[in-house]
Design brief:
single chain; 141 residues; alpha/beta; five-stranded mixed sheet; 18% strand; globular; zinc
Length: 141
């Protein structure tokens, strides 16, 4: 979790800094942090006061979440994430939870609640993962 927290500082997002680490058998498989796709814009440089425009659901229009970036990076480098453990500084949103489940990740540790960050009633992503057999645990700092 310490590495995920450190990775979060690399984020170019104006609104949030999130880091993620994928491990398997005590080895780091992939890393990621939230922000726009490579080759687009760095929000903190392009729009330092407000960040990128929001989409129709109120989320950043350019951002990939840290979990998404970690899974994509693993895929680009030929690594399988099936059976991996994910450490993330913010619990997965519902979209990331679906990707985590579909990718075969079996264990997720997080340190802060996405629901609390977004003002939602519950952590839908956590609920989804648990419903379908993925172990999800809060690691309090």
């Amino acid at each position: 979790m310490n590495l995920a927290t450190e990775l979060a500082t690399r984020s170019h997002c104006v609104r949030a800094h999130v880091g993620a680490v994928l491990t398997k058998d005590t080895r780091i498989i992939s890393i990621g942090y939230n922000g726009p796709p490579a080759g687009t814009h760095n929000c903190d440089e392009e729009w330092p006061e407000h960040g990128c425009a929001k989409d129709s659901k109120g989320s950043c229009s350019l951002a990939l979440h840290a979990e998404q970036n970690a899974i994509i990076y693993a895929s680009k480098n030929g690594s399988t994430v099936e059976g991996c453990t994910l450490y993330t500084t913010l619990s997965p949103c519902i979209a990331c939870a679906r990707l985590i489940f579909a990718s075969g990740i079996k264990l997720v540790y997080y340190s802060k609640s996405y629901a609390a960050y977004k003002g939602l009633a519950s952590d839908e992503g956590v609920d989804f993962l648990r419903k379908f057999g993925v172990t999800v645990e809060l690691i309090e700092n």
